[in-house]
User: What shape does this take?
Amino acid sequence: MKKFALFIGCNIPAKVQPYETSARAVLKKLEVDIVDIKEFNCCGYPMKNTDQTAWVLASARNIALAENAGKDILTLCKCCFGSLKKANAVLKEDDGLKVKINKILGKEGLKYQGTSSISHYLSVLHDDITIDELNKKTIDHYKDLNIATHYGCHALRPSEIMKFDDPASPSLFDNLVKVTGAKSIEWASKLDCCGAPVLGINDSLSYDLTEKKLGSAKKAGADFICVACPWCHMQFDKIQNQIVSKRNKEYNLPSILYTQLLGLRLGLGKEELGIDSQENQDNENLNQVYSKLFDTKEKKLKKKRKKKKLTKKPVEKKVGKKETQSVE
Amino acid sequence: MAFDLFFNSSLILLAIGMLFKIVQWFSYKIGIQAQNSTFTERLASSLKALLGIIFSPQIAIVLKIFVLDVLFQHKILKQDVLRWIMHMLIFWGFILLFFMHALEAIVSDAILPSYYSTVNPYMFLRDFFGFMVLSGLAIAICRRFFMKIHRLSTNKMDVYAIFIVAVIILSGIFLEGAKIISFTDFRNMEEDFSALEYKEDILALEAYWVKYYGLVSPNVTDQISQETLTAGEEIHNESCLDCHTRPQSAFAGYAVSKIMKPIGGLLDRMGLVTFLYYFHILACFIGLALLPFTKMLHIITTPISLITGAIMQRDKSNPLNIATRQLIELDACVHCNTCSKTCSQGPAFDIKNNTNILPSERMLSLRQYYKTKDLASPQFTAIQEGIYLCSNCDRCTVVCPAGINLKELWYDVREEFIRSGALITPLILSPFSYNRTYNRDDFGATLSDMPARHAKSIIASRYKKKSHSKDVLSLTDTDNEFKDKRERSLQDSTFSYCFSCENCTNVCPVVMNYEKPEQVLDLLPHQMMRSIGLGLENLALGSNMLWDCITCYQCQEHCPQNVKVTDIFYELKNKVSKDCFYSQKE
Assistant: This one.
């Protein structure tokens, strides 16, 4: 198992705190050790439009810091993920730029080498911890929950650099959702953009794109749109509310962070995951949707295994029973 | 007499200075809060709020913050242990000296049992407190000048603050040393308190003081007989002992007296004690009189900032009071650079060298800006780039040891710039703008992407747009230099492989969003690639497509020719930023 430094980025601590809370809680539950590097800065993503060298410098500094600590980077945000990984690719090809960047980093005793890898939270769950392991760790399953997975552009593309999943028909996120017993539905705009990159630059375009996604997921019967990126979450959360009030539309399709979706089935509590169900008290539709998060059934998979154990080792039977009882 | 004159003058100057500052805090404006308020309205509303706090349970929070953050400086401790040790040493050393020593007539004489500055423990404590301050200052000097802390800059005010405190303490210690060896002082004391009649007795006492109290006397030779000492001790015990502990307890002053001893007689005859006395009190009074206009003002403003920061809430507090608080906060900043050290956008400063990107330096610029509001100055261009180049991670606000709500200050000042119409920076056309629409409900901003529209109109006026022209495009004014430059740019230049299959355009979600996309976007992605291929630079650069691109990389992913469409867009956007905006500065 790689050793990771957690990269939180700028948006999460300021606007999407539950993501950090739940991500840390899940990692702790899965016994993944992480370190925090206080000196991490912005990944440089917002600088790309106006000054790409500034973006590469920002990313390179983070990577250099991780290298200094002998860690790989674990990002929560898909744009940080894309930004850092792309900067890595650019620097590997452009020696002149690398020299220039290292000259600046050298002022504070840092050096970019390009030895630390960059992984997104979902890849770590999928590839490093593995689906089998997650299946073992989940305690029960969602009974009747339809999830629309939102992959996020900057994780998938450009695929030759990101290598996150098959860019045309990805399955990584869907597999992770299935671990929880929820149904990962098929929907038309699954791989499209959430609209966040142009918010503030062209608001109506941004709203259009978000609406298109919400409409498509709703039509496919989703209860939640599931994300693993703060930008996408903000877009489907607060910006959805803006759309509701400014455009007189109603979707009632809340966004849930994957770390929360998984965390609940790992036996973590609402508070530990930063889930605030009080927020939607006056909306009957949303209340119904949220109640599905707490409607569970016993895991099928585990049951089968227990039966096997029952016949072979009767001693362990009691232990197994206790576990299921405590869950119920 | 002279003391009273100096003291009263400095107090009057301090009062005038503070009054001036208070008027500034309540009448100037920065940000968008309380734009149309008057001095009296703001003063009245803050007094009302103050009374409201005093007679409410919130007073408990005020007390808690006062103890935890003002007296114990917990916020500094959380960020930097060394700086906390430094500041605690200076703060407590100085405060204790201030009450025990400077205000001895008012405080020490009244409350301390048998207080006498030349008797232990007070004699020792005075030096100990002074030593605390000096140790703190030594750390401060190390941090500022030798430790090379990244992005820690030191300006004149920081130097002044260290200098004035050092001068006050050092002159005090030297004064003490000079007094220990002073023969003149000895004679005066002897005359006042023992009035010895016989010359031998005086000599005996002198000898005793030379031996045990560090006195430098012209009358006592190196050889002192035991008899003289015994006689001297007798007189000493009778007249002096009650009020004088041996000077070794005043370790700092004593050490200095040892250094001065070889030329002690000369120094005393030159009137060193009187000179140092006036030097010491003048340094104190200058520090006091200048307090409102120097960094030392933070001893008043920072506690205010810490307390108001803890009890005021943006959605509940009166905007008039928020406006006043923000002005006080500008003066509460001590330029400690904690924010700049933690700033997410630090690397942008490392490459752009605009100091306004760093929050601590921006505070200094804003302190100048609010007085003049000069929107045309080059300084303003730098401030607006700095304030817009902020990813709103709120880290500065979380770490600020002075409790300044930097986050809200940036929001409000940025908004003031935007509403003034003077904000011109390419950063508007980047995800840095996200925050404004995200928070539009809090701002009541009617058109949240208004700055972007303004920026786009600047771009449109520079480049020839397809939608603006009905003429047939000429290929003779193409720019081959531009084409060639592309080969050497940051990323692979691959546009020349484009054969206009239109895959990029067909998968583009932005194109798909519009019924007549060419009217909104000017050029479609494949047309962008073709324009560059043909050397029609202005067509591509002036196209709205660049700024409406959501950078989802669908085009690039689907290109059969491996044209890096999105990456090329980024490069074009960089070029527009440089040509249309940054060049104006130069």
